[in-house]
Automatic annotation (TrEMBL):
PANTHER family (UniProt xref): HL07962P, HL07962P-RELATED
Domain of life: Eukaryota
Matches recorded under InterPro entries: BACK (IPR011705), BTB-POZ/Galectin-3-binding (IPR051481), BTB/POZ_dom (IPR000210), SKP1/BTB/POZ_sf (IPR011333)
Name of the protein this chain belongs to: BTB domain-containing protein
One Pfam short name: BACK
Length: 434
């Protein structure tokens, strides 16, 4: 038997506590309920896909015909709605429309059309671009979002080949989230890209986009110079050497090189070429000026600044001071490391640091103790590179620039986002001028 609730609001709940006993309370008959039968609705809709029954339009793509239903097409796509229900097409003219699609879209038009009836799509890395382009062309927002999500997931590091393949599509179709993921994966694997045969086929826009980034992971700036020299002097780009040199060479951060590397540039083929010599001469002068003035810039001229991106380091693996195994059983470890003094790159490492690691599950705490840098204080930017078993970077944790007085300690915390595949963690200490 039901017990009446004294409070009408309690009638929304079929159960009520009463002296540790639950008593059934009748539901409020006036309360509305929302009932759904999505599965049967989709199933009933899907049975009409490419069926002659009740069709009122035929779509022809690359000679292949598909039976369609104008209402289904129009409800999913405002492009189809305008095409089928506005003045540009009328039923009296024809019941068949020929659609002109790019080759990559022709092969996947059937799964695209099926999605409009079934709300599901079978997709792979080979078909993703075609389906995405169709979703973009016909403004099927839900399918476009699904494609972008799939591609972002498949373009995560270390999948650099996917990132390279989808990067131009992300730019053309104005997909910022996909573009960010592709750019990140390429940047974290930039040395692999630089050493690959495909480097010579990279277009100018791609190079200008990437070279402006401080997030490129590579051994040092000189290997980037060598890659740029190969690209600029190849037969396909040699005709535009002067223009390309003026655009690209200022993006190579010569101040981040050591003396013998700068001297090697003075002996290079590009330096001897009159079409690029003036540009290189100016850049080398800036690099040497940085080396001369940066160590004592406050004494020479307090307002002298080397804050331009040209004077900032990238993620150079040569600046790695230590690395640890992510599965190290030790919860506490301390190491002594050395790096060069100040912000001017040097082969001589005389600055002493102590690094203390504390591990708690997948969380890491690092204490950076500035023991003796030869300067009153050190200005550094610590970066942690998380790598998989093959040594490829799958996560980068970058701290802000730290100003650490000699004899003091700064702390940083990081967590492995994907501990299942993260095998090693490398600490970079990047001296910065500003």
């Amino acid at each position: 038997m039901y017990r009446m609730a004294s409070d009408p609001e309690q009638m929304d709940s079929p159960l009520e506590d009463d002296d540790e006993n639950q008593t059934l309370v009748p539901p409020n008959p006036a309360r509305e309920a929302v009932l759904r039968d999505e599965a049967n609705f989709i199933q009933n809709m899907s049975q009409f896909f490419n069926q002659e029954m009740l069709h009122d339009i035929i779509l022809t793509v690359d000679g292949q015909q598909f039976y369609g239903h104008k209402f289904v097409l129009a409800k999913s796509s405002d492009v189809f709605r305008k095409l089928l229900y506005e003045n540009c097409w009328s039923e009296e003219k024809s019941k068949e429309i020929t659609l002109s699609e790019a080759p990559e879209c022709q092969a996947v038009f059937e799964p695209f059309l099926r999605y409009l009836y079934t709300a599901e799509v079978s997709i792979s890395t080979d078909t993703a671009v075609g389906i995405l382009c169709l979703a973009d062309k016909y403004n099927v927002a839900s399918l476009k979002d699904l494609c972008v999500g799939f591609m972002i997931d498949r373009a995560r590091s270390p999948a650099v080949s996917m990132a390279l393949m989808w990067y131009p599509w992300a730019k053309v179709l104005h997909l910022p989230d996909l573009l960010h993921q592709c750019t990140q994966t390429i940047a974290w694997n930039f040395y692999e890209v630089l050493m690959s045969p495909g480097w010579m086929n990279m277009d100018l826009d791609f190079l200008t986009d990437l070279l402006s980034s401080s997030e490129l992971v590579l051994p040092n700036e000189f290997v980037l110079w060598e890659g740029m020299e190969r690209w600029l002097l190849q037969e396909g780009t040699l005709d535009n050497l002067q223009e390309n040199s003026a655009l690209l060479l200022p993006m190579v951060r010569l101040p981040m090189m050591v003396i013998n590397q700068l001297y090697a540039i003075e002996s290079s083929e590009l330096y001897e070429n009159p079409l690029s010599k003036d540009t290189l001469h100016s850049l080398l002068s800036k690099a040497y000026r940085f080396r001369a003035l940066c160590p004592s810039q406050a004494k020479v001229e307090p307002s002298l600044s080397f804050c331009d991106i040209f004077y900032q380091p990238r993620e150079y693996t040569d600046l790695r001071v230590h690395s640890v195994s992510m599965h190290n059983s030790m919860r506490l470890n301390q190491v002594d490391v050395r790096m060069f003094k100040g912000a001017v790159p040097s082969d001589v490492h005389e600055a002493d640091w102590k690094i203390t690691y504390r591990k708690n599950a997948d969380n890491w705490n690092l204490q950076l103790y500035c023991h003796d840098t030869g300067l009153p204080m050190a200005r550094v930017q610590p970066t942690l590179l998380f790598c998989c078993d093959e040594g490829k970077v799958i996560q980068v944790h970058r701290e802000k620039v730290l100003v650490i007085p000699r004899g003091t300690t700064m702390s940083m915390n990081a967590m492995a986002e994907n501990p299942a595949i993260t095998k090693h963690m490398a600490l970079l200490l990047k001296p910065v001028a500003c």
